[in-house]
Amino acid sequence: MTGFALRRTLQALVVLVGVSVAAFALVHLVPGDPVRLALGTRFDQATYDALRERAGLDQPLITQFFTWFGGAVTGDLGVSFRSGDPVTLLILERLPATVSLAAASILVALLIAVPLGTASALRPRSVLDGAGTVLSQIGISVPEFWMGIMLILVFAGTLGWFPAGGYVPLSEDPAGWLRSLVLPAVTTGLVSGSVLTRFTRSSVLEALSAEHVRTARAKGLGARAVLNWHVLRNALLPLVTVTGVQLAYLLSGVVVVEIVFAWPGLGQLALQSVQSRDYPVLQGAVLLFALVFLVLNLVVDLLYSKLDPRISA
Amino acid sequence: MRRRSVLATLAASPLVVAGCSAGEQVDTGDGDSGGGAGSAFVAAISAQPDQLDPHKTTAYPAFQVLENVYDTLVVPSPDDLSMQPSLATDWETSDDELTWTFTLVEGATFHDGTPFTAEDVVFSYRRIIDQQLANSARFATVADISAPDESTVVMTLTRPTPNLLSRIGAFKGMAIVSKDVDESTLTTQANGTGPFSLQGSSASEISLSRFDDYWGDAPQIGGVTFRFLPEPAAALTALTTDQVQWTDNVPPQRVATLDDDESVELGQVPSVDYWYLAMNCAKAPFDDVAVRRAVAFAVDRPAVTEAAKFDTARPNQTAIPEGSEWYYDYAPFETDVDQARSLLQQAGVQTPLTMGLMVTSEYPETVTAAQVLASQLEPLGITVDIQTEDFATWLDRQGRGDFDAFMLGWLGNIDPADFYEEQHRTDGPNNYQKYSNPVTDDLLDRAAVEPDQGTRKSLYDQAAKQIVDDVSYLYLYNPDAVQVWEQGITGYEVRADKAVNFDTVVLPS
To answer: Signal peptide location in the record (chain A) (predicted)?
Structure first.
């Protein structure tokens, strides 16, 4: 078990170094010039040269890479071209909003997926199963921005129950935080929930047909006990992996939803930095997203090997 | 153009009153306990400012905020955008037009309490010039700036610059900062002499509070919070549910409905912006003026305007909008496809001809306008290949001259030099279309140093005529400035230069 954990952690570190090289290369390969962009349309050669030198963009690419990489290893991700703020600060500033939204969305998703998916699997081809399939199909296919705007128009506009957008820090006003969280979390939660419902259903169905379940039934165990002890425990195991992936996706920022709800999360930050070719911020964000995926994958793997000893073999 | 509804507002629906209003979240935090809910004024703008250093930023969201925090020596008047006293109360020009002496206002202080003096002006202007910051080109003719005493600033010039006031006062990029400032803090903090001081900023909002020692008339409201709401539907919903009191994030197609909505007031005035199409004068066949004129004759401006802006823009064939004192009434291109065809033939152009038209998703109106233009050029045998780029790539290609044609707008122009000089002079820094005509150059050069207003106007009129006839730019329309605010708010005015000043706002009691 420890050997497995060590091996996986080492692998993750190698991947992370690879990602940082790739992130740097990709970001710099994208056409577009941050200095031109910062100056806007009114362009003046002397000003341009001065600004370019100040940002260090006149250095050879390889020098720029090692300057950045050296800093990144020691935890210094540089400063934003756009605002001059340290990248670490910008990311930390947005982390609470992102974590709030990701956690709430996963909660909404699981609250939808587990009961609905299980119920559908227990009565395949019933009315409930059909309704569940249709609903999750809708959840997957409806664009998030449209769903978000509809929720705003109904629940913020007509009913006035929730604010139309914006984020309130938990430390400032817990009730306001919760209220600002509901609509964006429901929007992303419905989408993630739809994916997870389909997954739960097929996973439970599969578990139901397993031989040990038939044995348990043959032993005369009650339906509820069979479900709890022999079906769900096994069926929900794969769900851990999918939930982990969904969480990683949510933590790397759900750009569209964040724009619609004016949610100051990492997705918005990443989008802004792409638009303004803010290389340091973009590199920092990509590195963080990679880290989130790697860590969550690692946690899921380790959890999995704990839950199912066959894995680490 | 201002529309006011006289009917009483029924804005607050029972559910909003029942406790779901965000009133308590939008408190400006200025400690103004007496004002209650009435003291909160929240403005929804569409993006977060990139930074708050007035000399470095070029972004409109930043200026929306900074307009209320910083002052300039002179400032455009809300009525006709002529330059009015601000931190400078008075100015004199020497007989040779090469020395300008400014007298400064008495008793102004910065938000940190230090008094405002002539040294601050010298520091601010020298900072822009010496560090070659974004607006240094505005000081191109300035030889020296000095402060002979605390309340006098003298600027000496290398050549007469009749539009000097517009150069230093037209926008907050020329703001006066304190000479004692730690420059590295200017991107996130602000220390101006304006009516509001910066209170705090986060990734979702920036709050300002009233500066009680303001040298002018102190604002009525306790402060302003700028909230960043990129999605127009969310911004308008926030306005109608009383979470924000003002927004300029208004899609053109909603303007007619908002005009009928009695819970909000719509402000709509013609702006000094203009939108245009430019063809590459350094690339065949667009280097032939006949080809450019053919395109100009084929375009139906009212149709393009309608599609891109609905009823919130005026078609125009020159740059300067009607209503400006510099307006020049000239419109030689009636939509005429036959004329266009014969011009193409005269140029010996083989059709079908493909014209790449570069537009950017940063300004969606260019994408819409391009689609209409494409259909209008089709009968000519010109196939328009619409190339939608993100703005960084767009600017990159523009800078490299890698285009057949592009569309964009120029925002916030006041003086005629802003409209023509950098864009149409041979070697002008923004002459990306590579237009060159000695006649135009000569007219622009003479206009730039002409002190007599009447003669100056006539020179710019002639230059404009030449530019339009040569189709250096194919002018399309001047958009309106459109903003909405809560019914009952008074004292606020939409300005043609789209500067937003909240110091005069009075909330309903």
So the answer is: none
Q: Sort out which chain B residues have CB atoms less than 8 A from A160's CB and list them.
A: 13, 15-16, 20-21, 241
Could you tell me if residue B101 is left (phi over 0), alpha (psi between -120 and 50 degrees) or otherwise beta?
beta
Q: Do B241 and A160 touch (CB under 8 A)?
A: yes
B6/chain A closest Cα distance in angstroms: 24
| CB proximity A72 to B under 8 Å | no
Which pLDDT tens digits describe chain A residue by residue (313 residues)? 678 888 888 988 899 999 999 989 988 888 888 888 888 777 778 888 888 888 888 899 999 999 999 998 898 999 898 888 899 999 999 999 999 999 999 999 999 999 999 889 888 888 988 998 898 899 889 888 999 999 999 999 999 999 998 899 998 899 999 999 999 999 999 989 998 998 899 888 888 888 888 888 788 777 777 777 778 878 878 888 889 888 988 988 788 999 999 999 999 999 999 888 999 999 999 999 999 999 988 888 888 777 777 766 4
> Within 13 A of A156's CA, how many CA atoms are on the CB side?
32
- Name the residue of chain A whose CA is nearest to B48's CA: A272
On whether any CB of chain A is under 8 Å from the CB of B11, the answer is no
Beta bridge partners of B92: B101
Tell me the DSSP string of B466-489: HHHHHTSSEEEEEEEEEEEEETT-
Residue B391 and residue A275: Cβ atoms within 8 Å? yes
**Alpha-carbon distance B344 to nearest alpha carbon in chain A (angstroms):** 31
Task: Please indicate if any CB of chain B lies within 8 Å of the CB of A50.
Answer: yes
Predicted TM-score (pTM) of this structure: 0.88
Q: Are strands B405-410 and B353-360 parallel, antiparallel or unpaired?
A: parallel
Interchain proximity B230–A84, CB inside 8 Å: no
Closest CB from A30, A51, A164 relative to B241: A164
ipTM > 0.90 (yes/no): no
Distance CA B344, CA B348 (A): 6
With tokens 């703005």, the residue in question is B391
B377-415 in b/e form (b: 16+ CB < 10 A) is beebebebebbebbbbbbbbbbeeeebbbbbbbbbbbbb
